[in-house]
Amino acid sequence: MKGRRNSSSDYRSTPDRGGYSPGYASSEVSAKSTSSSTASGGRNSVSSAARSVAGIFTACFAPPEATIRSSKSFGDSEEFKAPSVASDVSRASSQKGRGSNRGINISINKEPGTVKFTMEEIQKATRNFSSSFKIGQGGFGTVYKAKLLDGTVVAVKRAKKSLYEKHLGVEFQSEIQTLSRVEHLNLVKFYGYLEEGDERIVVVEHVPNGNLREHLDCIHGKVLDLPTRLDIAIDVAHAITYLHMYIDHPIIHRDVKSSNILLTENFRAKIADFGFAKQAPDSDSGMTHVSTQVKGTAGYLDPEYLKTYQLTEKSDVYSFGVLLVELITGRRPIEPKFELRERITAKWAMKKFVDGEATTVLDPRLDQTAANTLALEKILELALQCLAPRRQNRPNMKRCAEILWTIRKDYRELSASDFRSFSSTSQRSSSIRD
Questions:
Q1: Confidence of residue 72 (pLDDT cuts 50, 70, 90)
Q2: Count of domains in the chain?
Q3: pLDDT value, residue 151
Q4: Is residue 270 part of an annotated ligand binding site?
Q5: Where is this chain compositionally biased, Low complexity type (predicted)?
Q6: Does any domain span residue 420?
Q7: pLDDT for the residue 342
Q8: Range of 149's domain?
Q9: What tens digit of pLDDT does each residue of 108-151 get?
Q10: Does position 156 have pLDDT exceeding 90, yes or no?
């Protein structure tokens, strides 16, 4: 934990959008689930595959946002290249001075790095954890907003002292080690940490626009249109592809979900919260999986992982499939207030899809245009592949990103065509009236 980290250039996947975002913790609860499933068919047996997928969801039934804990122990296209590794980051030094009302009284290199803060510095930054600086609360603890002397706004995550147990210590170390190894435009940027006595604090960049789940719930007062949701899905796919394929020791996130996807003011997505992250199996050694206790969030959990305790990158792919359904429908993965047949959102959506009723699952706040309908069906088809009961039948994340790029391209072309057609019709109508 005392070592230095390397910084790297931003990995830019969608140049028409930009920005940055921090990780706020999720709630945690003990539970255990198992499920049985059958292999899904190929592209020509969509109906059979979807019914197989539908059958696995009941094992995951639990209140939304509950975190599972069990005690049982493309060619190389330039689009997906990892950023190069460059210079080391130096230790920050304390400085005295008044600063701004919300300024942190320390000087720090603007590049993220494994900087060890002191408790005095953190207390100055948050005015001794003043409630006026508080911006979030989760199962991990409380999040405060602060500002570096150079103007960089950061989020300070402070763990609950009442939760200092062995597993939380492991999760804290996991998050620090993971954040210090990665840098990508669509991953939360890391600035430093504090581990002193019973204090566990992480300092990351601040997200100005909340998380994806909040926006799907319209907490911020504006409905996300389908193009924005598609852009967010692509950002997330790129970030997970980077974790799985383009770092020295690939990482499985293990908790991909809408509340861990933070959005900038320009709606660029950034994945946060690496407390459950696990190093992927070493392919050179011939290992196909990591045997580990089940961790994740109910509704997003890979049923094969639940059943076998074998973790692979395809577990993230499964969670991503649930996320795709969530983006399309606007619903949470588990909706306890809905009638039983609609309670597990992915199960309900997949059944509607194979029954030829895909348009009925589209978020009712979105317009049912030709372009939206086309994107809806293609995204649901990709979700169906990601949700295959057996991991070998799921695509990898790189393939998911490629498919989403194609969907976005087709969507834009059809939208432009519809617009030209509408403009032409309007002009003809105007001529007739004249």
A1: very low
A2: 2
A3: 76
A4: no
A5: 26-45
A6: no
A7: 95
A8: 84-205
A9: 443 445 577 888 888 888 888 999 999 888 767 889 999 876 77
A10: yes
